[in-house]
Each structure stands twice: as C-alpha cells, then as structure tokens.
Predict the structure of Calcineurin-like phosphoesterase domain-containing protein.
Amino acid sequence: MAMHLDRRFTGRGPVGHGYTKDNLDSGRLYYSFRVSDRVVGISLDSTDPGGHYQGSLGTAQLDWLDRTLAAHRDDYALVFSHHPSWSMDNFTPDPNRPDEKRHGGDEIIALLRRHPNVLAWINGHSHRNRIRPRGTFWEIATASHVDYPQLARVIEITDNRDGTVSLHTTLIESAAPHRTDYHDLSQTGLASLYRELAFNAPGKDGSLVGDAKDRNTELLLKR
C-alpha cells in the first residue's frame, strides 16, 4: 500500500489508486470510490490474513460493506473483489483478530441482494470467464492476464430509460501478434512472445475462456 501511495510509482493512475494514508495507517485494505455521477465503486479485501489461497471477509468488513451500500442507496453500485463467491470458503481466523468471524460467498451474495442499488459483483481469482445471475445483480468473473486466454474486460453501464439497466461485458485482448520473432525484444515483441508461451503452456486449460454467455454479453436488470 505504501508503494501505491509513493508518487514515484503513480504511473498514469492517481496517487494511491484508491488507497489513502488513512488506509495505510489503519491497515484497512477496502475502500469506496466514485466511478461517475451516478455510480459508486466498492473495493473489498477478500484475502484471508490467516492464510490459504481461497478468500473470505471478516465481520468488520462485512458490516462496513452493508453501511457503505446503505449510504449510497441513491447510486448504482459496482462491487469489486479478487475472489468470486465460489472461492470464498476459507474461514481460517485472522491472527490479528482471532475472535472475529469470517464470512463466505453465500453470505456476501445474500447481503448484496438486500441492496437493490447493486448492479454487479466483479471479480477474478479463478482465471476463468464466468458470468452468473444472482437475482438482483450479476456476478462477473474475468480470465487472467497470466494464463491463456489472457483477456481483460470492459464493463459499460447503460440506462435504457425504460425501467431497465444494461451491463455490457466486452472482452479485450492484446494487439500483439500471435506468433513472434524471437529476436524482437521490443515491447510488442515481448508481448507477442508472452502470448505464444501462454498458448503453448503444458498445463493450459482451454475451458478458461468460458462459454458464449460468459464473454461478450448484454446483461439486463430491472431498475
């Protein structure tokens, strides 16, 4: 977090990339931020400090999420986390808060359903394109930049002015060539080599790309 707040490493993004000195001083790795006039983003810290690669939320963070969504009841809300609901089943106690309960994916889905302003829960971790309806919102997971198919995703919100809202979930990939010149050490050449190595990796899982319903979609919600 200190590195995010160091202006030497800002790059093209804002200093902190969402984190503030208050986050650094308190050790709290979750926060909210303004996406647009009508949309608020809520970033969760789903890593369990007790260890293991699956995630969960502590009670303090879950209560904060509930309060933050209530405070922004007049905004649309997008919730972000590293872990998806199906990977949040790690209830190892936090060593710094051994008596605090940990909460999994089903409890988080239930909480988000209580807030009609939530449009989507956006996450990763599984390295797989996967979109699931959650009743009042959509859960949207996107593949990794490390493993094939190395995709990112642009999510656009459209108010259709007919009582519905659409989420457009367009996948994007690198413009680097699929096959590289091994003597080309330019940025494009290295990106191309990266794609080729990922495609030919012995452990490649072709199913990570997902089905058609997990990729370029228009997801409709009544609002």
